[in-house]
Amino acid sequence: MDIIQDISKTTIKLIIKEPFYGHFFTHILRKNNPKTKTVSITLTKTESILLEVNEDYWKTLSVDLKIGCIKHQILHIVFKHIYEIKKYGNTKLFNIATDLVVNQYLKKTQLHDNAIVLDDFPFLNLKVKESVSYYYKRLQEVYHLNSTTSSSSGDKFEKTTLLDEHEGWSAFQQQSGAEKQITEEKLDTYAQMSAKRLKTTDFGDLPSELITYLNEVEKRLNPVVNWKRVLRLYMQNSRKTYLKTTLKKPSRRYGTLPGIKIKQKQKILIAIDTSGSIDESDLSNFFSEIYYVWKQTPDIRIVLCDTEIHDQYLYKGVLPKIIGGGGGTNFNPPIQFSNTYRPDVLLYFTDGHAHAPSIKSRTPIIWIISSDGLSISDNEWKELPGRKVKLSLS
């Protein structure tokens, strides 16, 4: 049995039975890893979400348990448990608390015999559908780091077979603040896209807690700057067209194959101010906005510049590992680069604190000013050529 193929078959069954989880799982990479004890969510080197599966373990699961296993992982991701470990001192209790949360959303047939559930702790009288924080605090009341509980159900604290699946979460703890923000927003986007694929009846079948989360995601994913309105002014009339042959459609003139298809393409250049006045928070916000642009127009080239260009590359939705800069600010090098590169539009992310460019741009410029950057009342604001928009604090 090819495990990746079998996981794909399980995904199809999940899409049919519980569409939200199935659609969400289509965004996650899969890999057979014998070193993984059971199943674990982690990150690839390019910051993509990866499900690592032990083939021997997977073979022991029934169809329902395979579906439950995938749902379990998705709920950990959706509820951002992969990022919360730093808030808690006891890793074991945290892992148990997170499983207590997600396993309440699984059907009994989807729960492994070793799954941790509320009934494992009858002496705590735990409430249903509570937060990780609630379950963690209640577990702390009867658990001691240097001694075992005297309760007859104390062995449940040691029931950690399935908690090995949390080992891959360490990759998320190693992300920088900017990398974490990009990944979290990717996950929110996956959740939003999955929800939009649901029929009204399917959406109504979701737990109320998950519906509340999806509604919050919908609000959160409205970008700070309304790119649809700002960019549309520059992009609608600047689409480049090119011809592409196709075997699906015969030529209208000659009735033969291959026919010709007219495609439209947009090319965006994004300059990012990496001077000393731009901190990590600003860069994180810049890349968050850039990610939204990239989802709509994938042909984006990034230029990193302070007084000179330190790097330029084709953006693939991933943050650069190293961002050079830290000096002053000179707007001219990116504009000079743009005049040679000839994009449809130049987006310049900056705080705006520099002399106005002396080089005239052959391309329309949109200046995206950081929340603590220039204000509309500043003289420098008026001196920047082109359209200016300001990121809000929210």
Task: Give a written overview of the molecule.
With 394 residues, this protein is of the alpha/beta class. It folds into two domains: 3-220, no CATH class; 229-239 and 266-390, von Willebrand factor, type A domain (Rossmann fold). The protein is 37% helix and 15% strand. The chain contains 14 helices and eleven strands. The strands form three sheets. The chain has a six-stranded mixed sheet, sandwiched between helices. Strands 1-3-2 form a three-stranded mixed sheet. The chain is elongated and about 70 Å long. The two termini are 50 Å apart. Mean pLDDT is 83; it is low at 145-154 and 237-243.
The helix tally amounts to 14
**What is the string of SSEs from the N terminus onward?**
HHEEEHHHHHHHHHEEEHEEHEEHE
The description of the largest β-sheet is: 6 strands, mixed
Overall strand count: 11
Structurally, how many domains make up the residues? 2
* Average pLDDT metric: 83
Strand order, sheet with most strands: 8-7-6-9-10-11
- The end-to-end span amounts to 50 Å
What integer value in Å does the Rg equal?
25 Å
In percent, how much strand structure appears in the residues? Answer: 15-25%
Can you give the helix content as a percent range? 25-40%
Structural class label: alpha/beta
From the spread of the alpha carbons, the general shape counts as elongated
Stretches where pLDDT is under 50 for at least 5 consecutive residues are 145-154, 237-243
